[in-house]
# Entry
Amino acid sequence: MKNLSKKQTSWWKSGLPWVWLNGGAVAVCMLMVLGLLGLIASRGFGHFWPADIMQTKVTEMDGSQQIIMGEVVRAETIPASVARDSGYEIPEEQLLVTRHLFKLGNRDVTGRDFVWYLENGMDEWTYPEDAIVIERREWGNFYGYPVAIREQDKVVAELLDENFWEEMQSRLERALMLHHQVEVIEKSRIGAINNAMEELRLERRRLELSGATAEVLSLADANISERRAALEAEYSVIKQERDDLLQQATRDKLVAKTADGKELVMSFDHLVRITPSNQLSLVEKTVSYFQYFWAFMTDEPREANTEGGIFPAIFGTVTMVIVMSIIVTPFGVLAAIYLREYAKQGVMLKIIRISVYNLAGVPSIVYGVFGLGFFVYTLGGNLDELFYAESLPSPTFGTPGLFWASLTLALLTLPIVIVSTEEGLSRIPSTIRQGSLALGATKSETLWKVVVPLATPAMMTGLILAIARAAGEVAPLMLVGVVKLAPSLPIDGVYPYLHLDQKIMHLGFHIYDVGFQSPNVEAARSLVYATSLVLVLLIIALNITAIRIRNNLREKYRSASD
# Structure
């Protein structure tokens, strides 16, 4: 017994229990992270799979029967008493009932999108071969049957025709191509004319503010009027071209009917995708799955962000992180170099370091309030008065935008970069510094040509941590530049090409908006998982890129550090 107790005591003193405890804690954390990622991935990826279209007959609470068609979302079992309290007639001996949530779509017809129905009183489910789901630009999905195709109110194809499905898809592709051409004209060519017209107005305003004489203003007005007339003439030509395309796009119409026989006429210009889900094979569903996922990644949001894609949010997130990295890296590195290499050790330096450490723990919303008050209203307002007075009272930089959002995040992540860079500088052996100085190099040359290059992996580590935190922040961005919907990207062909004053969308805020502010909760549920998955993958991609750069730098300077 004594030997056993001695073995136990020595085992505890050896520290092995704490090693196993730490290993177990790491394993549990890894399982939790992988479980969370698995949940997000399964729900997110599953959103894009083309589900089969079900049709059945159900009995309403008032006893009436109705034919429904749609996608089965999920099922759950509830106490029968709950169903009885809601008005359903359930046998007394039945204790539990199953109810199913169906996505019925057709909001423009019934006004209902997602509806719960009890399994009691529900007929057998069928999957009609001719059923289709139509993704529309408005009113959500349509579930029903195609009837005919019209061209200028003339029927050119019916369901029983041999080439009906090919004709329907070809006309849809034509309408999508025309819609894309209209978008290019409106955003590019008409947008350029609008910018030129606004520049003429600002030019006239600048002359007024500069105190130009009446004669100079008169000559300027004549010149501006001539240029404005030329722009208006060009706009008339472009508008006519756009109107012709719109007329062509609305030429074809699809006649469809719901499961209960109501007919609906839809212009192909308002349709995005037509999918006969019940006819698709596994390979065709896989192809449709990737097409849907690609559209989700590259399209703009629709229907209060519950339909369409998230490309503006992806672009805004990446652009903001890149601008933030460009801002925070030099400031953080220079601050760390000064604190480590030049500042005198003393009480003041300790206070500065403690302040830097404390800044890392300040809630992010505080940075947002500071950014709104100092960056937007103070700096931005003064910039408008100095350089953009002709645009006032409409603010240019005196309003939340991309630059202020990036600057706020740079301030938020600055302590991370400073601490990581300082730690990297402190790990450089003193022998390397002494050897450089012994060879005749100055302190400045030693620092910038020997020490700093060796510390670049640590700098990249700080940047990696900064990117990881900045990409997922939401609270401060709500105050300094991120909005619910901004389909126009902050980059275009107009000088200066990257417009730092514009507002942007952000994946984190998009998740918050869709998950908590959406008028259609059930439609938003799957989008929350899908967008969260994209945000996680984006952060991983940004981190992997930075890690590869850090590893290359580490390998480059490994021999020198040895």
